[in-house]
Amino acid sequence: MQSQKRWLPWIFLGILIVLGAVILFFAPNEKTMGAGIKPVYVHVAFSWVGVAGVWLAGGIGLLLLVRDSKKLFWWMEVISWIGLVWFLAGIVLSFLAAKANWGGIFLAEPRTAAGLKFIAIALIAKTVAEWLPWRKLSALVNIALVGVLWLTTFSAPLVLHPKDPIRTATSVGIQTTFGAMFVVVLLFGGWVAWMIRRRQSHDLA
User: Fold this and answer.
1) Most buried by CB count within 10 Å: which residue of 22, 89, 137, 185?
2) pTM value?
3) DSSP class of residue 167?
4) What's the pLDDT score for residue 113?
């Protein structure tokens, strides 16, 4: 029984990897980009989950200001870091998508530059908060990062990036694929949180 429990997370991860590969294999091409849309599916999924992690960590930060809790703090930090790593992964994956569709990587493109600026600000702010053992300061940092994300990334002008390409897509298959990849990448983030919790379960006591 213990052996089965030990292998359960890795079986779940294997299922996610296979599921993601199957989704990409059967994913529809786009009329103008062709198969170049496939790296975009993955890039967008990581970016979305990253944004969701930042927002969720900010929401937990608000709760932490009202009710000091070691457990809430633990989850806020885990979700926040996963969100930031996933958001950064989304940027890195956008380079692959840019290479496939634009023929090169353009770091000065406003949305890309804004994303990199947000990551730099977030890493500096969270590193400073790590040095100071005040849970409410970390909560304020995570709350502030929601605003920083909005002011940097979402307010950046769109030059090469299309505006809301998913909701305006005429293909239901493309929209469904974006949604399915989001769920897979979200579950991958949940898997990482699950593994961290298993290793540090005593911190939640």
Assistant:
1) 185
2) 0.87
3) T
4) 86
- Considering the domain boundaries, does residue 73 fall inside one? yes
Per the structure, the count of domains in the chain is: 1
CA distances from 142 to 109, 136, 163 (A): 26, 10, 27
What does the alpha-carbon distance between residue 175 and residue 108 come to, in Å, rounded to a whole number?
28
Write down the pLDDT at residue 132: 81
For residue 93, being part of any structural domain is answered with yes
CA torsion angle for 203, 60, 131, 153 (degrees, to 10)?
140
pLDDT digit string (tens) for 145-203?
Answer: 999 999 888 776 665 565 556 665 667 888 899 999 999 999 999 999 999 988 776 45
* 140 vs 137: CA distance, rounded Å: 5
pLDDT of residue 141: 95
Range of the domain at 159: 36-204
Question: How far, CA to CA in Å, does 106 sit from each of 48, 50, 86, 94, 150?
Answer: 21, 21, 20, 10, 21
Name which of 47, 86, 75 is nearest 189 in CA terms. 86
What are the E-state strand segments in 43-180? none
20 within some domain: no
What pLDDT, on a 0 to 100 scale, did the predictor assign at position 2?
53
Cα–Cα dist 146/137, whole Å: 15
Residue that the structure tokens 């929601």 belong to: 146
Q: Residues of the chain whose pLDDT is less than 50?
A: 202, 205
